[in-house]
Amino acid sequence: MLRELQRYLEAGQLVDVIYLDRYGQTSKRTLRLLAIEGNRVKAFCLSRSAPRVFAIENILAIYPAAQKKGA
């Protein structure tokens, strides 16, 4: 997972992640990755329109964000 995160960060590519939150619920988030620090990822969450920090061990899946038509 770390290697994938680093690759997307270096490419500046938006990603979709499936994330397990602190309450044990899964959510899908679209992120602009900003930094990887230890076992955490700093990102701007487009789903919440705010900066967020994600624990890498709680990221269940990561893939490139779908491009919107006309973008």
SSE arrangement, N to C: HEEEEE
> Can you count the beta strands?
5
Major sheet size, sense and barrel closure: 5 strands, antiparallel
Helix count, per DSSP? 1
Structurally, the number of domains stands at 1
CATH class: Mainly Beta
Poorly predicted sequence stretches spanning 5 or more consecutive residues: none
Query: What would you call the shape?
Result: globular
Identify the strand order in the major beta sheet. 4-3-2-1-5
Radius of gyration: 11 Å
Report the average pLDDT across residues: 90
Q: What structural class results from the helix and strand content?
A: mainly beta
Estimate the helix proportion, in percent: 10-25%
**What percentage of the residues does DSSP assign to strands (E)?**
over 45%
The CATH architecture classification is Roll
Distance between the termini: 28 Å
Q: Could you tell me the CATH topology label.
A: SH3 type barrels
Secondary structure topology:
Layout: H1 2-11, E1 15-20, E2 26-37, E3 40-45, E4 50-55, E5 59-64
Antiparallel strand pairs: 1-2, 1-5, 2-3, 3-4
Structure description:
A five-stranded antiparallel beta sheet has the order 4-3-2-1-5. It is globular, with a radius of gyration of 11 Å. It is mainly β. It is built from one helix and five strands; from the N terminus they run H-E-E-E-E-E. It has a single domain (2-64), classed as SH3 type barrels, CATH 2.30.30.100.
